[in-house]
Design brief:
With 156 residues, this protein is of the alpha+beta class. It is built from 4 helices and 5 strands; from the N terminus they run H-E-E-H-E-H-E-E-H.
Length: 156
């Protein structure tokens, strides 16, 4: 028996993609109004005993009213740096319907000086998120003792 000839449109299958998101319900809404509030949130979220060990990178996802929708650890590096996945940050922002994000990382050395790489990452991520109408509100560098805010320093 001769096989049936397929019509070209018969093989064009399309899978459907769905995104499900439900705004988290908190007993107490956390709102970010300053870099100090961001620092406090991060110190509650991260294991501060690891800050001097390796470099970590986090993203805080925010609503239009600067309510915290979520915090995610993006990467864990070594003592000299970590990889920042822009795509993952954008995906998380889209999945949570965030209109703003704050990024943060630590310096295991304890030095609060922003590196050329820190400035470059901030600039490139801001540009990427702008195309999605998501604001990069701040970039925090955290150490065991203190922090520095790109927004406070006028670097954004």
């Amino acid at each position: 028996m001769k096989p049936k000839k397929q019509h070209p449109l018969d093989i064009a299958l399309c899978n459907e993609v769905q995104i499900h998101y439900k705004r988290p319900l908190y007993d107490k809404e956390q709102r970010i109004a300053s870099s100090m509030a961001t620092e406090n949130l991060l110190r509650d979220f991260v294991d501060t005993n690891r800050l001097d060990y390796k470099e970590f990178f986090w993203v805080i996802l925010l609503s239009n009213a600067n309510q915290v929708l979520g915090v995610s650890e993006i990467s864990i590096g070594n003592t000299n740096g970590t990889y920042v996945n822009y795509k993952e940050i954008a995906q998380l922002a889209l999945l949570t319907n965030a209109t703003g994000v704050i990024i943060a990382h630590n310096h295991p050395s304890g030095v609060l000086k922003a590196s050329h790489s820190d400035h470059s990452t901030t600039k490139n991520l801001k540009k990427s998120l702008d195309t999605l109408h998501i604001k990069l509100l701040d970039h925090i560098i955290l150490t065991t003792e203190s922090y520095v805010s790109f927004a406070d320093e006028g670097w954004l």
